[in-house]
Amino acid sequence: MSFTWAGVLSDLVRGNDLAPDAAAWAMDQILAGDATPVQVAGFAVALRAKGETVAELTGLSAAMLERATPVTLPSEAVDVVGSGGDRANTVNVSTMAAIVTAACGVPVVKHGNRAASSACGTADCLEALGVVIDVPPDAQPQVLARAGIVFLFAAMYHPSLRFAATARKELGVPTTFNFLGPMANPARPSAQAVGVADARMAPLVAGVIAGRGHRGLVFHGDDGLDELTTTTASDVWLIRDGQVDQTRLDPTELGVVPAGRDDLVGADPAFNAGVVRDVLSGARGPVRDIVALNSAAAQLAFAGPDLAAPLAAQF
To answer: 0.90 exceeded by the pTM?
Structure first.
């Protein structure tokens, strides 16, 4: 079936959902550099205003994966990632959780980028720690074998996203593009632990993961964090065998002392890197608690959650 920008945009303006192949076509046009900035902006705004669907996110992320720089790694691994966009400027929880998860013997293939809406993204933090973030794809298998964890720098693996950069920057508002990263890990690991800042997007991300036959946990904190939070409870979507089950997790059920938002606030890469060193050196407190909780979520995602059992009992 052939598509045109006029047809796709007309559907969105009318409030009609796109089929996966139509969404994939639009994204491929953008990533190929064949869409004008006006078309990119119109598509992003119209889709966001209508409200995305699982089918649309499936098509968009599939097109991203098709255009991604190839990397060959074992599929039996977990990605620990947050969508970003919570504007809470916390320390790098998912980065620390990924390292702890790998230390527990679970292979981790973390996909991430520099900061977009915070002072320090995963790539910024790792760079401040002295980690080489632009490892060539053909060297990643050796890194994973030796360290149990690799970092896939999104800017390296999705260079075609540069064609959307101008429109996104000029729009200045969050669009679907802000949430696609967790669904576009080029290594395609079979398990994911994903924090989503947008409560409406979280179940859609879970639906995409389920549609791929992967397993995982998707979560959104009641405080708006894109982490399994420790300041309050979180909504959690458990994913296994193509099924999704929504539940809740109150960290106090696990004996976690509630944290305050200020306990989790970070700063620039140098500061956040110092927090990483402290936590990994054994420092106790609220940051260690939230890192441990999110690492536990990643390990459960890798093992495969039991959709019939209480979530707290699986930690």
So the answer is: yes
